[in-house]
Each structure stands twice: as C-alpha cells, then as structure tokens.
C-alpha cells in the first residue's frame, strides 16, 4: 500500500491518501492535547501504543460482531483503514463516575454506576464538543434514528467486550469514548480505543493508567501507557 499525499492532520494523527479511494493510512503521533487543545504536550511512545492497541482491540471487536474500519497494520505507527465520513458525535459510555460526569452531577469519582450510561457530544471544537441527546442530534442532521439505534447497539457491545478484555489484564474500564463512520451506507467503528480515549484504573489499587495522568499533571504518563500495553500482552 502506497502512502500518497496528506489529507488531514488532527491532534493525535495524520491521515494520508492511498491509490485506493476507499482506503486511507492513519499515522499516530506522540502529540497529546487536553481541554479542547488548551493543554499541549508529548507522550513519548504513545503513537505506537495507541496504534497497536487500537488494532488489536478492533480485531477482537470484529470477531464479536462489531464492524470496524481496520484493514491492515502497516508499521508500529501506521495502519490502513477504510475511508469513512465520521458521524459528528463522540459516543461516551460510563461504568463508574469520573471526569465531566462527576463534575456535572456532583457524584464522587469512583462511584460505581447501577447501569452503564450512554452520552453523545456534538463534535465541534469551536463549541467545545457540547453534550447533546439523540433527539437533538437527529434534529440538527448530525445523525438519523436508524444510525443512532445501530450506534447504540454496537456501543453497548463494545462496552461488554472491553470490560472483560481489560478485567483479564487487571484493569477496570471506568469510561470511554468512541466514534463511528459511514462506509458505503453502513455505520462502522472508527478512530481509536486507547489510554487516550478510555479511563483505565488498576483493579486493586485504582491507580490511573490513562490520559488523566497527563490532563491532571500526575506524572509517569509514559509509564502508565506502557503498563497498559504490557498487561494486555500484545505480541
Ligand atoms: O471528560 P469526560 O469525563 O466527559 O470523558 C469521558 C471519557 O471520554 C474519558 O474516557 C475520556 O478520555 C474520553 N474522551 C475522549 N475525547 C474527548 C472527550 C472525552 O476520548 N474529546
């Protein structure tokens, strides 16, 4: 697969064209941002971990019946993926209260939730990705009822698969964000699943092993990413 001109550069990835109009190459960077780009930094080795971890998890999800954009891992940082139109919604699931949920509802971080939640944020950097509900997303044309029903079904399946996957590595899945894309009329899982997009706590000690270490200046950010990678045992 040949890497042609760059199409796009985001906060954590670059995307390149290929000779196939249906396939693009994603190149994961070590750049880290938080708070809608206000905080910037580098997490050395993050691009490799996020690329390899996402690909590993996406292949498991495919086997479990969740279609994804994954095509082929090309190198430590580069992956060929199906070219999708991203649905402009961040889809967030929470198993335990943390982050913006704890703040908004006044519930202490670490409080287990009776059932998993599902939230949508409208992807718009200028607006700071505001929280919206399904009716609002449909009303503004960001998605359709059929698409949201499919996204909801896939998202709860992803939660079940990921909770089990991380538990086997001694990690509790607190919450996560995923994104979907449209590919030839179907909705498929896109973007990434990594310590950038999940809250991952050690099951015993509750030590944070995710991007909150960067957001909150807790130190040992690289070590936490490496620890997750080591525990899930990707060869
Ligand atoms: O900040 P908040 O508590 O809403 O984040 C919920 C989950 O979504 C966290 O796992 C966080 O890492 C992820 N997230 C993300 N990208 C964003 C916002 C949240 O990956 N832009």
UniProtKB/TrEMBL annotation:
Species name: Dorea acetigenes
Signal peptide: none
NCBIfam families in alphabetical order: purC
Similarity field: Belongs to the SAICAR synthetase family.
Entry keywords, A to Z: ATP-binding, Ligase, Nucleotide-binding, Purine biosynthesis
Functional pathway: Purine metabolism; IMP biosynthesis via de novo pathway; 5-amino-1-(5-phospho-D-ribosyl)imidazole-4-carboxamide from 5-amino-1-(5-phospho-D-ribosyl)imidazole-4-carboxylate: step 1/2
Catalytic reaction annotation: 5-amino-1-(5-phospho-D-ribosyl)imidazole-4-carboxylate + L-aspartate + ATP = (2S)-2-[5-amino-1-(5-phospho-beta-D-ribosyl)imidazole-4-carboxamido]succinate + ADP + phosphate + 2 H(+)
Superkingdom of origin organism: Bacteria
Taxon lineage: Bacteria, Bacillati, Bacillota, Clostridia, Lachnospirales
Domain SAICAR synthetase/ADE2 N-terminal: 7-231
Record-linked CDD domains: SAICAR_synt_PurC
EC number of the protein: 6.3.2.6
Entries under PROSITE patterns matching the protein: SAICAR_SYNTHETASE_1, SAICAR_SYNTHETASE_2
Acyltransferase as UniProt keyword: no
A GO molecular-function descriptor: phosphoribosylaminoimidazolesuccinocarboxamide synthase activity
Descriptive protein name: Phosphoribosylaminoimidazole-succinocarboxamide synthase
């Amino acid at each position: 697969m040949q890497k042609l001109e760059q199409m796009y550069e985001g906060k954590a990835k670059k995307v390149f064209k290929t000779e196939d109009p249906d396939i693009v190459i994603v190149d994961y960077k070590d750049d880290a941002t938080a708070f809608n780009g206000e905080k910037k930094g580098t997490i050395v080795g993050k691009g490799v971990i996020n690329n390899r971890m996402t690909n590993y998890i996406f292949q498991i999800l495919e086997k479990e019946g969740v279609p994804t954009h994954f095509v082929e891992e090309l190198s430590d940082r580069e992956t060929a993926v199906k070219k999708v139109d991203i649905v402009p919604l961040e889809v967030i699931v929470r198993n335990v209260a943390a982050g913006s949920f704890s703040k908004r509802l006044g519930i202490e971080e670490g409080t287990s939730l009776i059932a998993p939640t599902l939230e949508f944020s409208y992807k718009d950097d200028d607006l700071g990705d505001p929280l919206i509900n399904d009716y609002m997303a449909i009303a503004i044309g960001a998605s359709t009822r059929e698409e949201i029903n499919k996204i909801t079904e896939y998202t709860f399946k992803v939660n079940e698969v990921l909770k089990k996957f991380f538990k086997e590595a001694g990690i509790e899945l607190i919450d996560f964000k995923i994104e979907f894309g449209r590919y030839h009329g179907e909705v498929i899982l896109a973007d990434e699943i990594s310590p950038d997009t999940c809250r991952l706590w050690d099951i015993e000690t509750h030590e944070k092993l995710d991007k909150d270490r960067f957001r909150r200046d807790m130190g040992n950010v690289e070590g936490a990413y490496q620890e997750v990678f080591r525990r899930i045992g990707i060869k």
